[in-house]
Design brief:
The chain is of the alpha/beta class. It has six helices and four strands. It has helices at 9-16, 19-32, 61-65, 78-86, 110-119, 154-166; strands spanning 50-54, 92-96, 122-125, 170-172. Strands 2-1-3-4 form a four-stranded parallel sheet, with helices on both faces. Helix 6 links the parallel strand 3 and strand 4. The chain is globular, with a radius of gyration of 19 Å. It starts with 8 loop residues before the first helix and ends with a strand. 23% of the residues are buried.
Length: 173
């Protein structure tokens, strides 16, 4: 028998999603951040006027959870978090997806993303792997033979190269 079968998840929400648990999750995430390289771009200046947020993961809540997740009380995407962080400042935040995870996007383009990066004070590129590339039963090289190794999917590498060509102030997340 399943001892959890009789538990109503809505009864647990106030406990699981309590302010104390949120604070612990925030502290854990903050303590886990690793800055691999900083060429003087961080921290962002207080005089920041515009930020471009680019990439297929910036506004993709489903991919943030990937395939190993329960049902969270809420999900904050990178774009939403950046907007909330800069709310009340003089900075504007603009978003352009730029590309899909492994294919070109139908609603955006690398050229649009590069043009946005060229006009922003800083660009935050939210790139990486997702369920089309890695998930249970699907590892790199299986089904997407061109995505082997530790690099980004080729379309995302093209996006990152275009962003760097448009602006020297690109932050990769």
């Amino acid at each position: 028998s399943n001892p959890f079968g009789a538990v109503d998840a809505t009864d647990l929400a106030p406990l699981v999603d309590s302010p104390a648990h949120r604070a612990l999750a925030r502290k854990t995430a903050s303590d886990s951040i690793v800055l691999l390289q900083n060429n003087g771009i961080l921290p962002l200046p207080q005089t920041l006027k515009s930020v471009a947020v680019v990439g297929p993961f910036a506004e993709n809540a489903a991919e943030m959870l990937h395939s190993y997740n329960g049902t969270p009380a809420y999900v904050v995407t990178y774009l939403r978090a950046i907007r909330e962080l800069l709310n009340g400042t003089q900075a504007t935040v603009a978003y352009e997806q730029g590309t899909g995870i492994v294919n070109a996007s139908t609603t955006s383009s690398i050229a649009n993303a590069a043009a946005l990066a060229a006009t922003a004070d800083f660009t935050i590129a939210v790139l990486g792997l997702g369920t089309p590339v890695e998930s249970e039963g699907l590892d790199r090289g299986e089904g997407h033979g061109s995505i082997v190794g530790l690099g980004l999917p080729p379309i995302q590498q093209d996006l990152l190269d275009a962003l760097h060509a448009s602006s020297p102030r690109v932050i990769l997340v």
